[in-house]
């Protein structure tokens, strides 16, 4: 009995350890280093306040602007719905911010859908498929990279997670919590999927 229990504990610890290492390694790799250009830049939503991106969301959008200014893609897609009582969606707030930073409106697509990462990315990949596009830089926070890579692949695109390190999540404690949370989120996605 104790042997079986020990084996189970060891297996659980090993799986968690593997997931944690996967999340950590993905967080410290920039997909934009793997390819010069992609068909699109997809910015995953975060909180917005009356049409103004939160500091976390602004960090992601600023990274998308950086990729845009480097000529890395011809289309930027913002995604994300809104919370109950909100007047603006994350996608709309993100698109407006991108325009203010010089990205032409005709090169931005706002998809105001998705309350989860998977649903938002699914909407983006459907829009890409409609346009005949199949590769994208996926912009979020670094600890999301492993899950975004898996989701992008599952949804049929060439995914290149390219995270911002300039969002509001800068403290060691905050980042540590995010890595722990994302380790479990990554495992959950790998076991149960996102649909």
Shape annotation: globular
**Count of β-strands:** 7
Mean pLDDT: 93
The count of helical stretches stands at 6
- Outline the biggest β-sheet: 5 strands, parallel
Q: Structural class, please? A: alpha/beta
Beta-strand percentage? 5-15%
Distance between the termini: 37 Å
Helix percentage: 40-55%
- Our Rg estimate from Cα atoms comes to 17 Å
What pattern of helices and strands is seen along the backbone?
A: HEEEHEHEHEHEH
Spatial order of the strands in the main sheet?
Answer: 5-4-1-6-7
**pLDDT below 50 for ≥5 consecutive residues: which ranges?**
none
Describe the structure in your own words:
The protein is of the alpha/beta class. It is built from 6 helices and 7 strands. The strands form 2 sheets. A 5-stranded parallel sheet has the order 5-4-1-6-7, sandwiched between helices. A two-stranded antiparallel ribbon has the order 2-3. The chain is globular.
Structure in a nutshell:
The chain is α/β, with parallel strands linked by helices and 195 residues long.
Blueprint of the fold:
Blueprint: H1 2-27, E1 40-43, E2 48-49, E3 52-53, H2 55-69, E4 76-79, H3 90-100, E5 108-111, H4 117-130, E6 135-139, H5 145-154, E7 158-161, H6 172-192
Parallel strand pairs: 1-4, 1-6, 4-5, 6-7
Antiparallel strand pairs: 2-3
Annotation keywords:
195 residues; alpha/beta; five-stranded parallel beta sheet; two-stranded antiparallel ribbon; 6 helices; globular
